[in-house]
Amino acid sequence: MSNFCSQVRLSSNLIRDVRIRISRSFTTIECHRPTILHKKGVDIIHDPWFNKGTAFSMTERDRLELRGLLPTNVQTVEQQIERFKTDLRRIEMNARDGETLSLAKWRILNRLHDRNETMYYKILVNQIKEYAPVVYTPTVGLVCQKYSGLFRRPRGMYFSAADRGEMMSMVYNWPADQVDMIVVTDGSRILGLGDLGVQGIGIAIGKLDLYVAAAGINPQRVLPIMIDVGTNNEKLLKDPLYLGLQEHRLEGDEYVSIIDEFMEAVFNRWPHVIVQFEDFQCKWASMLLNRYRNTYRMFNDDVQGTAGVAVAGLLGAVRAQDKMLIDFPKQNIVVAGAGSAGVGVLKAARRTMARMLGNNKDAYESARNQFWVVDVNGLITEERENIDDDVKPFAKKSNEMRRRGLNEGASLLEVVQEVKPDVLLGLSAVGGLFSKEILEAFKGSTSTRPTIFAMSNPTTNVECTPEEAFSVVGKHLIFASGSPLKDVDLGNGEIGYCNQGNNMYLFPGIGLGTLLSGARIISDGMLQAAAECLAEFMTEEEVLKGIIYPPISRIRDITKAIAAAVISEAIKERIAEGYREMTYRDLKRLSKEDIILHVENNMWKPDYPTLVYKNI
Ligand SMILES: NC(=O)c1ccc[n+]([C@@H]2O[C@H](COP(=O)([O-])OP(=O)(O)OC[C@H]3O[C@@H](n4cnc5c(N)ncnc54)[C@H](O)[C@@H]3O)[C@@H](O)[C@H]2O)c1
Ligand SMILES: O=C(O)C[C@H](O)C(=O)O
Ligand SMILES: [Mg+2]
């Protein structure tokens, strides 16, 4: 008995020990502990990581040789933000049109980003709903399209085909010894805007802005990367102002060897980094994912992040029909678009259904019947030539389809008319694809809450707007779009909710959870846990109203919960290895609440630190 008691005491001491470590986890300490600098005077003002502008206190101005280099009045960060907003309001009043305004807002934010990162992220965190559409979709799409003209200062790193054999040393040109998150693109499929070559770096920057704002990744430890292997965009190839390699894209083994070299180089310098692949064209997206996912700590946001967000939304739509989740495998889902994102969603939704049906071979077989896939060439059946391996399981049986009057290549309209699906999901990059005719046909859906996911980005590429959808399908519709769009006033005080079905709800939590778990790879289970956590965020009341995703203003809380779910799953799968002073053994002992606290403590907060100079 006494032995037992001392064991209990021992383990409770250990838990207390771990708890102390949680409460002392590094970011909390960093917030209060001064930041040591090795520079003084104007060098600090010109360094966006440390610059506070007019917020440097008088003692700091003395300590850091800043006295006289700034206007006399010391301002609070709130006053600084008020000045920023006054400037913004002036721009809003003078803007000619929506596009000019969006770009002007992006410019003013970008300039702040270049000058003072803490203040920039404070604004983003405090008003994420207002500014996410500027630094992220849809404006980021416009910025990428106009990047060569907008370029002022570089941000991130550029590796080009001309750097072959040099990458291992080039990575040391980046100033930070610690990098937690890399978002990399080759610019080959930027949103639904196609091949934008080197200009695609904007998307990596925008994603990392969300990593900082939503996941609290320290902005000094994020790195946007562009791998410039040329472009097949004829306009850019001829544009004298284009900033990238003006050659056609590298293909085949040559291309793969460049990405291999890049992966080796970044993991060699930063072994704990997480690499998010973003906006790679379909033919490379899944190939590279399969190539690296069991070796490196990486994931593909378009394939895996989108899949999780879609699954969470699909489950929400089932609940909105007042059905049990177990009814999900009965839903008939038409997917328009069989590219990297569409295939990711199909595979994840099938897996989720199969798990509900018993997780065996029969369950997988039966689940695939619930999907109808339509791409640029129409309905995909077994007769389709050169069908992609990932799409093959979803190809419809020709005999069965013929009995229903649907042939290989049947149009989306024909499919919707015949299937009367519960869900119509677009990842086609074709703006307006869900035409009035198709929406009319979708009115025939057998669901009590027919659901449309018009997920293509940016706004110009959305398959249909919420106004179009609600006006045709009616008030019972559930609607989500990839880019933010306004709710619809349905009259009589009723609202047609426009949810934002965007992978931004998942990737920050996947990244943060993976980082803190220390897992060497990102497993399907970790991704599934993230998706389920997002789905659980919605209350019964919300889903019944047609609200299937939480508001973006809650993104920091959502990300915290998702990161905790990812960590718990990594612990369960025994692939967590711990991070910094929190070892795997420590992690294993944490309760659910402790894990959330641990995540919270490790989220960087945009507060000015006290700066102290130290000679090196
Ligand atoms: N909301 C999100 O979180 C999210 C995430 C990832 C991708 N996306 C968006 O999804 C879109 C597609 O991305 P992707 O990576 O899959 O692109 P992709 O180029 O790999 O795939 C596009 C697919 O659409 C199909 N398609 C083209 N025209 C069509 C038509 N008329 N009818 C039916 N299908 C058609 C193509 O055949 C292809 O299968 C992009 O606009 C992207 O921005 C959104
Ligand atoms: O970038 C986004 O807004 C979502 C997604 O990653 C996309 O490629 O469209
Ligand atoms: Mg993307």
Automatic annotation (TrEMBL):
InterPro entries: Aminoacid_DH-like_N_sf, Malic_enzyme_CS, Malic_N_dom, Malic_N_dom_sf, Malic_NAD-bd, Malic_OxRdtase, NAD(P)-bd_dom_sf
Compartments, record wording: Mitochondrion matrix
Keyword Protein biosynthesis among UniProt keywords: no
CC terms in the record's Gene Ontology section: mitochondrial matrix
Cofactor annotation comment: Divalent metal cations. Prefers magnesium or manganese.
Catalytic activity: (S)-malate + NAD(+) = pyruvate + CO2 + NADH
The keyword Lipoprotein is assigned to this record: no
GO biological process: malate metabolic process
Residues holding (S)-malate: 189, 457, 502
Ligand binding (a divalent metal cation): 278-279, 302
Molecular function in Gene Ontology: malate dehydrogenase (decarboxylating) (NAD+) activity; metal ion binding; NAD binding; protein homodimerization activity
Record keywords, A-Z: Metal-binding, Mitochondrion, NAD, Oxidoreductase, Transit peptide
First-listed, main subcellular location of the protein, grouped into a coarse class: mitochondrion
Residues annotated as the enzyme's active site: 136, 207
Cofactor: Mg(2+); Mn(2+)
SMART domains in the cross-refs: malic, Malic_M
Limits of the Malic enzyme NAD-binding domain: 303-571
Residues of the Malic enzyme N-terminal domain: 113-293
NCBIfam families hit by this protein: PRK13529.1
Sequence similarity: Belongs to the malic enzymes family.
Known partners and oligomeric status: Heterodimer of two related subunits.
Designated name of the protein: Malic enzyme
